[in-house]
Amino acid sequence: NQNSNWKQIDSFLADEGPYLVVSHVHPDGDAIGSTLAVGFMLKQLGKTVVMVNESPIPYKFRFLPEIDHVHSPEEIAYQAPFHRVIAVDVADAERMGEKVRQLFTDSVDLLNIDHHPTNDRFGTVNRVESEAAATAEILCYWATHLGVNMDRYLATCLYTGLLTDTGGFRYSNTTPEVMELASGLLRQGVNPGEIADRVIETTSRQQLALLRCALDTLSFSEGEKVAWMWLTRENFQETGANEEDSDGIVNYARNVVGVDVGILFRETEDATIKVSLRSREIVDVGKLAQTLGGGGHARAAGCTLSGSRDEVEQTILNKVSMALGQGGI
Ligand code: 5GP
Ligand code: MN
Ligand code: MN
Question: I need a surface site. Which of 5, 85, 90, 119 has the fewest CB within 10 A?
Answer without folding.
Answer: 5
